[in-house]
């Protein structure tokens, strides 16, 4: 099994920055993708960013140009640098890991609140 531990969430002012991390442990295959989805109250879950085992990166339209995803394969860790945050970014951010041989895994979620 795979476990994901998220950290870095919290309260941040509009225009500020926040850095999320997600570390995976357990039975991890060589080929996997990691990233984040988020869900705001009353809204559907949406893709924030993802990065494949080959380094291909995907961003949701609402965060392009503001968020940056990166990956440390040696630590099985993915990071999300959130800059120029907006109140609309307020959500629970869920880290995911997708490994074709074993399936999808999710973190517990970390709350990000953007407010003055």
What's this, in brief?
The protein contains no helices and 11 strands.
Structure characterization notes:
This protein is mainly β. The protein contains no helices and 11 strands. The strands form 2 sheets. Strands 2, 4, 5, 6, 9, 10 and 11 form a 7-stranded mixed beta sheet that branches. The chain is globular and about 45 Å long.
Write the topology of this structure.
Layout: E1 2-7, E2 10-12, E3 18-26, E4 33-39, E5 46-51, E6 57-59, E7 67-72, E8 77-82, E9 91-99, E10 103-106, E11 110-114
Helix content bin: under 10%
Q: What would you call the quaternary organization?
A: single chain
- Average pLDDT: 94
The number of helical segments is 0
How much is the radius of gyration in Å? 14 Å
Q: Report the principal-axis shape.
A: globular
Q: Which structural class do the helices and strands define?
A: mainly beta
The biggest beta sheet is recorded as: 7 strands, mixed
Distance linking N and C termini: 40 Å
Q: What is the beta-strand fraction?
A: over 45%
**Low-pLDDT runs:** none
- Total strand segments: 11
Order of helices and strands: EEEEEEEEEEE
